[in-house]
């Protein structure tokens, strides 16, 4: 997923993989086990320690704050802004100021006129100007684009983590044929030319799924969540498997087994708690990767469907206005950069917080 | 732009002469030599003469082909008349109008040195009709005697096309005034004996041709190279040594290349917003100027599918759509000088054109009110599927129409398709699963028949490949179209004008939007710019030269 | 050793079958109607039925797949494109050198950046250099590749006119009449694509190298070597770098394998006629055989490079042979 940027499947390469470090010297999953086990006795102390360490990491905190703000802006701010400004993100203002006298998208801070029922032109504000020659509000489209990014990022992360955790934990805990089957599936998935698969799936599956919105999602979100989730589960499966494997050998599991606890009970009360740390870290970094992936696919015209705004489609439209409106290329790019940066910073911080012995 | 519709731009457009202020042709200071570089964004389908059917290829073949009849390398009226090229003078036509006898002018030779003979044209007809070539253009042979038998695989050669010494005799099944115009199509250019033997439905990418240039190489998806035909003595210009076509750069890059002078002609156009800018910088239609704009006999429209429940017998909604679409905004997507807004079927300058003034060319509060009123009660569930091409400004235009439809309560789902897929699927009743599709039609020749009958006659809607995207099939209008097509002189014009008005007023099959222009942007280093829409859009490639 | 080799080979074969089977089922069963796509323009219902029969689409899936495998293995044929009837082998063959040039050149570039940055910042943690490197890494990892590409194209290519905006030149034997060709032109046109493609990898590799080197610095044998009084440069060279960089080599092999399947974004932005653009165009045209062809090639590349990495490792690290 990491390199969705260009070769999404990279078995290593990008942030996700380098975090998981398949061949790296210190698979973090194993690293913090000792620490965690020691803290097992005093669960509250453990979490307090994590929080304490995270609080000291100013960059990670800044990332966290940015993410919270982004959520607020995307899901509360966007509708609110639309209400205040008086128009929606898909409304064109072509004949009333959305294009300047050279037929170019209006620049930042332009007032446009909205045709009202009684034929009056009501003055409204385009904070960042028009998005294209369709003269829609770039500012609002950016805000609504954040919704799409977060929906895809979070949705795909949840799906891939769910699948990965389930399969990885099962494999690590039950061993035997379950492990063999699941591990082989992981190997198989990793031999897939990932990005090629994503674009072909988005191109074929997309035509059927794009219009499923469940009433609140953007068109195309469901497709991307499914494609990313179904193809992205193997990283988390690997981590979970190795965590579960090492836990399985610990004495407290033996003990639980001896007193006759069922498998399910052991998994629930002894295995899953140890997965939480790596899960959170992995999830946070995953979101960044999926957001980049969404933008990339939308840029290629295979992601979010028109007219729904996405940072990727905004970016795809921008080169048309290269010479005259270079700012149009800047906004969506900066929005993407800041968002992925925030998730990456938070993810890094969380990892360090969960794993104080890490070398970073 | 797609092949079929492109014909319109490519074929004889006699009327266009009247619209274009005739600029002088071939500059006296024409310099020979050098390489002219062109950019096109999507590769052509074939360069094989009997298969290629894209406007872009025909533009290139205008420089490589020699034909019995051809357009002259001139602007205006002079360029819009099919004139004898390899034929020595006009053919002798039999009294019943069915037999044409051409005399082959001596001196034409292929780029490999072979001589062009009557046989070269017979070969072209036979190769064209050969079923193993699977050419999509064979419909144009329908009037040639014996062609159908070859197409059906029942005969090996067309019985109606024969070479007798330096004479070529063609027999038709019926008198056809447009036969000479059809001969200007690249399908019917002379081919040498090597090509005649190569029957391959995948197309040949290198062959000798008899025009001023020939295709010296093609790398699909990458480039096409034309070189001057060393044996050419036909009198048409051949100024540059080489014409190099680079494939694949999008229009933003093409624009930058032409601005920088690394390319000479942005053949796929430039970003719409740049037109105003370049016209301001370099002026419009100056002699050998960098920006040239010519009107086309063409129309962009939204076809409303009368074969599906939404628009079947629902003229109220069709009218509402015509009131709702924002033609000004639609046109704005194409940038400066994109075209002229329209609310009717026939384009200005066409026989039968009369301003009908039925629908607003500009949206106001009143027009929206009127549109809503008309739509009220006719929405039938309020859902529609709108097809559009996925390239260039088409997605923006589709989103605009989508928004306009939403204003009258129609929820349109936009499906973006590759252009070729869009019109082939739309023209096939088996696959036409749209309620509305955004189309473009360019006239094949300047006659209303080519707009009204070809696009709206209901007789064809069951064919697997037709052009009646509105699936418009109303007995009354079918009859009126047929009777109008039989008229001549002023009565013909009047009949079509009446039909245009009646259709749009009573039962609009389309929402007509814009009659568009041909806009060319060239580098500072080229001169000798001559544009003849009959040959294809943009400057004639054999004439263009380095300054 | 032989047994290990055989096992890996066998597994590679299984992987190949697995991936192609899944691809086949997904692509030829899912789209609405592959026969209609193949039948092309002006197809009637009968035409579609006939083509469907010709392609064997009316047979059970497993038979279809067996047929596909047979064509692939026996005839080495990937079929013909639905879009332009060209042979898919030919199209893939034309695209492979372009993508290879992009990926290998990019890999050299990213290693040239990542190695010094990663090593130096690990040796001097919290120095100015280290902090600069961290910023580079964070931005490199977070910035969208398409955006970087567009910015480079706009500033370097267009505003400053230092490099071409887009396009590709052949390094050897350019097609006749091509506007450019030869190593110099080739490299000149590849500067921006290489940069665009390399930035993300440079950042993540720098990060990986930095953390590996730092981890190794803390190992006991390094401390021992230092305690023995070995000169720092020798310690770094002999103990630290060798152990820290070994895993990087593996990863490089895997990443290159995956990237050979098409660096889609870079190719799309800079109009490079590589596998990525071929795949993208075929997806947009629903040209199934071409899509399938690119995926088959990419899978092969991944599997072979995986195999190569395995073998190299078996040679370097004897423990693996026993495993």
Write the layout of secondary structure elements.
The complex is a heterotrimer of chains A (about 350), B (about 550) and C (about 325).
Chain A: H1 15-20, H2 28-40, H3 43-56, H4 58-85, E1 110-115, E2 121-126, H5 138-174, H6 176-190, H7 194-204, H8 206-209, H9 221-231, H10 234-248, H11 251-258, H12 263-299, H13 311-317, H14 327-354
Helix pairs in contact in A: 3-14, 4-5, 4-14, 5-6, 5-9, 5-10, 5-12, 6-10, 7-9, 10-12, 12-13, 12-14, 13-14
Chain B: H1 3-10, H2 16-19, E1 35-40, H3 55-64, E2 69-70, E3 83-84, E4 92-93, E5 99-103, H4 118-129, H5 147-151, E6 161-164, E7 167-171, H6 179-182, H7 193-197, E8 213-219, E9 223-228, E10 242-247, H8 251-260, E11 265-266, H9 274-282, E12 291-295, E13 298-304, H10 315-324, H11 327-333, E14 339-341, H12 365-375, E15 383-389, H13 394-407, E16 411-417, H14 419-426, E17 436-442, H15 449-456, H16 475-486, H17 489-506, E18 510-521, E19 526-527, E20 545-546
Parallel strand pairs in B: 1-10, 1-11, 15-16, 15-17
Antiparallel strand pairs in B: 2-3, 4-5, 5-7, 6-7, 8-9, 9-10, 12-18, 13-17, 13-18, 14-18, 19-20
Chain C: H1 2-29, H2 34-39, H3 45-54, H4 61-74, H5 88-123, H6 128-142, H7 145-159, H8 183-217, H9 220-227, H10 232-259, H11 264-270, H12 275-284, H13 288-316, H14 318-322
Helix pairs in contact in C: 1-13, 5-6, 5-8, 5-10, 5-13, 6-8, 7-8, 7-11, 8-10, 8-11, 9-10, 10-13, 11-12, 12-13
Your description of this structure?
The complex is a heterotrimer of chains A (360), B (547) and C (323). Chain A is 65% helix and 3% strand. Chain A has 360 residues and is mainly alpha-helical. The N terminus of chain A is likely disordered. Chain B is of the alpha+beta class and 547 residues long. The N terminus of chain B is likely disordered. The chains are: A mainly alpha (360), B alpha+beta (547), C mainly alpha (323). Chains in contact: A-B, A-C, B-C. At the A-C interface, helix 1, helix 7, helix 12 and helix 14 of A face helix 1, helix 6, helix 7, helix 8 and helix 10 of C.
């Amino acid at each position: 997923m990491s390199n969705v940027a260009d070769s999404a499947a990279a078995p290593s390469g990008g942030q996700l993989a380098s975090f998981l470090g398949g061949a790296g010297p210190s698979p973090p999953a194993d690293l913090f086990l000792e620490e965690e086990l020691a803290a097992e006795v005093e669960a509250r102390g453990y979490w307090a320690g994590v929080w304490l360490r995270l609080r000291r990491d100013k960059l990670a905190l800044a990332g966290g704050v940015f993410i919270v703000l982004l959520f607020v802006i995307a899901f509360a701010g966007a509708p609110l802004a639309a209400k205040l400004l008086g128009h929606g993100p898909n409304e064109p203002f072509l004949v009333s100021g959305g294009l300047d006298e050279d037929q170019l998208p209006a620049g930042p801070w332009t007032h446009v006129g909205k045709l009202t029922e009684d034929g009056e032109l009501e003055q409204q504000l385009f904070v960042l100007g028009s998005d294209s020659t369709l003269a829609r509000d770039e500012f609002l489209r950016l805000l609504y684009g954040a919704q799409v990014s977060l929906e895809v990022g979070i949705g795909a992360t949840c799906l891939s983590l769910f699948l990965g955790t389930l399969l990885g934990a099962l494999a690590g805990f039950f061993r035997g044929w379950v492990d063999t089957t699941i591990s082989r599936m992981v190997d198989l998935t990793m031999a897939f030319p990932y990005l090629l698969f994503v674009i072909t799936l988005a191109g074929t599956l997309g035509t059927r799924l794009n219009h499923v919105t469940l009433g609140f999602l953007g068109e195309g979100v469901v497709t991307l969540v499914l494609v990313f989730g179904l193809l992205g589960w193997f990283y988390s499966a690997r981590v979970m498997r190795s965590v579960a494997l090492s836990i399985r050998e610990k004495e407290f599991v033996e003990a639980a087994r001896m007193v006759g606890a069922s498998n399910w009970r052991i998994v629930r009360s002894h295995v899953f708690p140890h997965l939480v740390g790596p899960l959170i870290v992995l999830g946070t970094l995953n979101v960044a990767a999926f957001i980049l992936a969404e933008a990339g696919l939308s840029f290629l015209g295979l992601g979010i469907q028109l007219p729904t705004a996405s940072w990727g489609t905004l970016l795809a439209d921008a080169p048309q206005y290269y010479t005259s409106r270079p700012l149009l290329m800047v906004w969506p790019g900066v929005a993407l950069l800041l968002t992925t940066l925030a998730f990456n910073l938070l993810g890094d911080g969380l990892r360090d917080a969960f794993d104080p012995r890490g070398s970073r | 732009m797609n092949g079929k519709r492109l014909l319109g731009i490519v074929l004889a457009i006699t009327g266009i002469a009247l619209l274009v202020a005739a600029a002088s042709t071939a500059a006296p200071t024409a310099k020979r030599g050098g390489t002219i570089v062109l950019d096109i964004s999507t590769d052509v389908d074939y360069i094989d003469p009997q298969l290629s059917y894209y406007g872009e290829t025909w533009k290139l073949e205008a420089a490589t082909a020699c034909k019995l009849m051809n357009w002259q390398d001139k602007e205006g009226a002079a360029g819009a008349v099919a004139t004898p090229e390899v034929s020595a003078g006009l053919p002798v036509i039999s009294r019943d109008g069915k037999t044409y006898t051409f005399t082959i002018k001596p001196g034409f030779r292929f780029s490999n040195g072979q001589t062009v003979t009557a046989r070269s044209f017979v070969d072209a007809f036979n190769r064209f009709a050969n079923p193993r070539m699977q050419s999509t253009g064979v419909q144009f042979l329908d009037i040639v005697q014996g062609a159908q038998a070859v197409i059906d695989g029942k005969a090996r050669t067309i019985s109606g096309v024969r070479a007798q010494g330096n004479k070529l005799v063609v027999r038709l099944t019926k008198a056809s005034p447009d036969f000479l115009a059809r001969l200007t199509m690249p399908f019917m250019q002379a081919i040498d004996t090597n090509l005649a033997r190569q029957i391959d439905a995948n197309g040949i990418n290198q062959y000798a041709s008899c025009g001023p240039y020939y295709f010296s190489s093609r790398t699909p998806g990458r480039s096409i190279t034309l070189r001057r035909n060393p044996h050419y003595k036909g009198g048409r210009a051949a100024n540059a040594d080489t014409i190099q076509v680079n494939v694949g750069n999008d229009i933003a890059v093409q624009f930058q290349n032409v601005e920088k002078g690394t390319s000479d002609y942005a053949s796929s156009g430039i970003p719409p917003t740049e037109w105003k800018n370049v016209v301001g910088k370099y002026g419009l239609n100056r002699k050998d100027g960098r920006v040239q704009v010519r009107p086309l006999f063409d129309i962009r429209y939204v076809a409303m599918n009368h074969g599906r429940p939404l628009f079947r017998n629902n003229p109220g909604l069709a009218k509402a759509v015509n009131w709702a679409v924002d033609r000004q905004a639609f046109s704005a997507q194409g940038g400066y000088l994109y075209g002229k807004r329209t609310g009717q079927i026939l384009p200005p300058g066409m026989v039968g054109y009369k301003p009908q003034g039925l629908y607003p060319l500009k949206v106001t509060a009143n027009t929206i009110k009127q549109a809503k009123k008309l739509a009220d009660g006719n929405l039938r569930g309020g859902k529609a599927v709108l097809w559009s091409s996925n390239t260039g400004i088409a997605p923006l235009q589709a989103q605009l129409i989508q928004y306009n439809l939403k204003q009258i309560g129609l929820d349109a789902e936009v499906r973006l398709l590759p252009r070729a897929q869009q019109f082939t699927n739309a023209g096939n009743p088996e696959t036409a699963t749209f309620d509305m599709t955004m189309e473009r039609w360019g006239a094949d020749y300047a006659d209303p028949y080519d707009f009204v009958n070809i696009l709206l006659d209901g007789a064809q809607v069951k064919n697997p490949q037709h052009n009646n995207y509105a699936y418009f099939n109303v007995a009354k209008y079918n009859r009126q179209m047929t009777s109008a097509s039989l008229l001549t002189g002023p009565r013909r014009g009047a009949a079509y004008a009446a039909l245009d008005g009646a259709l749009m007023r009573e039962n609009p099959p389309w929402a007509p939007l814009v009659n568009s222009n041909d806009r060319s942007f060239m580098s500072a280093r080229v001169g000798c710019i001559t544009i003849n829409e009959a040959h294809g859009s943009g400057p004639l490639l054999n004439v263009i030269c380095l300054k | 050793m032989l047994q290990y080799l055989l096992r890996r080979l066998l597994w590679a074969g299984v992987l190949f079958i697995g991936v192609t089977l899944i691809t086949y089922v997904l692509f030829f069963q899912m789209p609405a109607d592959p026969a209609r796509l193949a039948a092309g323009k002006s197809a009637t219902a009968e035409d579609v039925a006939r083509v469907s029969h010709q392609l064997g689409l009316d047979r059970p899936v497993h038979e279809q797949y067996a047929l596909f495998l047979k064509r692939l293995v026996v005839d080495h044929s990937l079929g013909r494109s639905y879009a332009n009837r060209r042979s898919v082998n030919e199209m893939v063959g034309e695209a492979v050198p372009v993508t290879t040039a992009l990926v290998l050149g990019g890999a050299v570039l990213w290693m040239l950046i990542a190695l010094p940055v990663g090593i130096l910042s690990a040796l001097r943690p919290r120095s100015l250099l280290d902090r600069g490197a961290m910023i580079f890494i964070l931005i490199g990892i977070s910035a969208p590749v398409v955006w970087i590409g567009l910015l480079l194209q706009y500033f370097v290519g267009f505003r400053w006119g230092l490099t071409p905006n887009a396009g590709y030149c052949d390094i050897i034997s350019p097609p006749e009449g091509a506007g450019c060709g030869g190593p110099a032109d080739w490299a000149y046109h590849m500067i921006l694509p290489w940069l665009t493609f390399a930035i993300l990898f440079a950042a993540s590799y720098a990060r990986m190298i930095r953390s590996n080197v730092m981890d190794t610095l803390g190992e006991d044998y390094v401390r021992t070597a230092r305690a023995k009084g070995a000169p720092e440069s020798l310690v770094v060279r002999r103990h630290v770098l060798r152990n820290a960089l070994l895993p990087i080599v593996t990863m490089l092999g895997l990443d290159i394998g995956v990237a050979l399947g098409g660096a889609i974004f870079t190719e799309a932005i800079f109009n490079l006629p590589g596998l990525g653009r071929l795949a993208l165009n075929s997806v947009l045209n629903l040209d199934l055989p071409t899509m399938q062809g690119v995926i088959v090639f990419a899978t092969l590349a991944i599997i072979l490079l995986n195999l190569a990495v395995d073998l190299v490792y078996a040679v370097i690290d004897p423990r693996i042979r026993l495993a």
